[in-house]
């Protein structure tokens, strides 16, 4: 083993040789042997080996292996120095191997080392993006679980930081191709990360690109398979996939496949849905997703059949008025429970799909059923007016911090929900029923109201209580707000699904969340 003095002497030989440095193979070999010495010798070797690496192609394997030994040294300072210098070995055909090595080194628990590995990977990414991706995806497909997990997270966080000259169209095509291979066998959390990666690619911002992503999600969601409402993994998979698909839909990228599946397979089983997520109103989450997708549904093959299923489900949440006793009082002494959050979703979805078949209520239903529906609408509308007045009085004069209390947040959302339902019911009371009004779903961001838009629409998109009108008598301000018996959603914003990774799939044997543990050891 060479001493510190011998390492410096041989370094001097190589440094002084300038253009003839390649003729001093023996001197470079002494430096390679420095990795077998003590701490000082290793520290010097970690710096000297990469400096002259390119001059000795015949010793490339030996040099890379020597540096890797230093990357695994017990001394953290030696490891850090060796990792920092690894990009200097990323030349020509060695680059994919170095990328593979750096990807494996992501498993370190030392934060400083981890940052060095990340920086080194970014450095070689800028040298050769395709080669670097080859190393990363090799480990994602074949490496140990901890390496796979961190490699995926590296791609999901770092790709967006790279300049356009690095992420060329060809590089993005490679990312898509390799990602499709990985998506054949992923956990739920991995799937979400890959959708984040892919949806951020410039080449997939087009209509055709978005359509590709929707097809990938549809494949993951197993829309060709019969839905199993009693299997929480099946339900979870559908919700996660649909949640990823919703932002991709537009007037040019249709949600028809998903909406059809929800109408045919999910709605009829709504009451039997199960989920592993404790405290989650799974039925409401499904209805929210359906409502969001319904705006972008294209031509549907079985429109009337599916619209009828949606209508039937809506009726379940639109009660008939209670029967009155001879004295004119409620015979049952119990008002039906009005579940406003459910009705908002179902009524909105029916309103959106009803536009495609505007004569459904008048020509497709018999007279008795239409009469029954209008009685239900009228009863619901009466209850709405009472709750809207109570909510407005409860929120009147409250601004800023006062509106941020948990109780007032719920009231603000409740006001949005009831206003939305009110507008939609008014549309359906037209003769013939109208489908022209536009509302913003209560959990969606508030949209600016266009000048000239109807007052009814203005109410529905307002997240705060209405402003006082300049004149006219007010209702009794002393009226106490009583929380209505209707069921409001306590989810006040966009629903962020917990990525549990606890799914099993029909693909590959590992499926969502059941990827087999690998113990592959060092693959350098």
From TrEMBL:
Localization of this protein: Nucleus
Compositionally biased tracts (Low complexity): 461-472
Pfam families per record: API5
One GO CC annotation: nucleus
UniProt keyword list: Apoptosis, Nucleus, Repeat
Location of the region described as Disordered in the Swiss-Prot/TrEMBL record: 452-524
UniProt KW Signal keyword: no
Family: Belongs to the API5 family.
Quaternary context: Monomer. Interacts with FGF2 and ACIN1.
Protein name: Apoptosis inhibitor 5
Species for this entry: Mesocricetus auratus (Golden hamster)
Name of the gene this protein is made from: Api5
């Amino acid at each position: 083993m060479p001493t510190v003095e011998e390492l410096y002497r041989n370094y001097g030989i190589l440094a002084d040789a300038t253009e003839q440095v390649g003729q001093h193979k023996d001197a470079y070999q002494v430096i390679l042997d420095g990795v077998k010495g003590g701490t000082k010798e290793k520290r010097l070797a970690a710096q000297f080996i990469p400096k002259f690496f390119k001059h000795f192609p015949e010793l490339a394997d030996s040099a890379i292996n020597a540096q890797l030994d230093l990357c695994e040294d017990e001394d953290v300072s030696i490891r850090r120095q060796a990792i920092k210098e690894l990009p200097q070995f990323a030349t020509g055909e060695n680059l994919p191997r170095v990328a593979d090595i750096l990807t494996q080194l992501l498993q370190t628990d030392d934060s400083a080392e981890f940052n060095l590995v990340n920086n080194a990977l970014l450095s070689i990414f800028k040298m050769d993006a395709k080669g670097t991706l080859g190393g990363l995806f090799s480990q994602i497909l074949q490496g140990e679980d901890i390496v796979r997990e961190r490699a995926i997270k590296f791609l999901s966080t770092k790709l967006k930081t790279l300049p356009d000259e690095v992420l060329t169209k060809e590089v993005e095509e490679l990312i898509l191709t390799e990602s499709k291979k990985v998506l054949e066998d992923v956990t739920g959390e991995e799937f979400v990360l890959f959708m984040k990666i892919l949806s951020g690619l410039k080449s997939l911002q087009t209509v055709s690109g978005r359509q590709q992503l929707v097809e990938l999600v549809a494949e993951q969601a197993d829309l060709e398979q019969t839905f199993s409402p009693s299997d929480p993994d099946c339900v979870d998979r559908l919700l996660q996939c649909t949640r990823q698909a919703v932002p991709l839909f537009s007037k040019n990228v249709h949600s028809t496949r998903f909406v059809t599946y929800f109408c045919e397979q999910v709605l009829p089983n709504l009451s039997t849905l199960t989920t592993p997520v404790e405290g989650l109103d799974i039925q409401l989450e499904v209805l929210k997703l359906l409502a969001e997708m319904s705006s972008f549904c294209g031509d549907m093959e079985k429109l009337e059949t599916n619209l009828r299923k949606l209508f039937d489900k809506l009726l379940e949440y639109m009660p008939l008025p209670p029967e009155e006793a001879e004295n004119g009082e409620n015979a049952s002494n119990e008002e039906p429970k009005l579940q406003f959050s459910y009705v908002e979703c179902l009524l909105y979805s029916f309103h959106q799909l009803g536009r495609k078949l505007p004569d459904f209520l008048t020509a497709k239903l018999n007279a008795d059923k239409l009469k029954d529906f209008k009685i239900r609408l009228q009863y619901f509308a009466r209850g709405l007016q009472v709750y809207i007045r109570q909510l407005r009085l409860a929120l009147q004069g409250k601004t800023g911090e006062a509106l941020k209390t948990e109780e007032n947040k719920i009231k603000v959302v409740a006001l949005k929900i009831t206003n939305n339902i009110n507008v939609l019911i008014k549309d359906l009371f037209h003769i013939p029923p109208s489908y022209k009004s536009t509302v913003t779903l209560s959990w969606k961001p508030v949209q600016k109201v266009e000048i000239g838009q109807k007052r009814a629409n203005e109410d529905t998109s307002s997240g705060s209580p209405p402003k006082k009108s300049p004149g006219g008598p007010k209702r009794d301000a002393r009226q106490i707000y009583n929380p209505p018996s209707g069921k409001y959603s306590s989810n006040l914003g966009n629903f962020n699904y917990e990525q549990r990774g606890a799914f099993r799939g029909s693909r590959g044997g590992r499926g969502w969340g059941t990827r087999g543990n690998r113990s592959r050891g060092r693959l350098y």
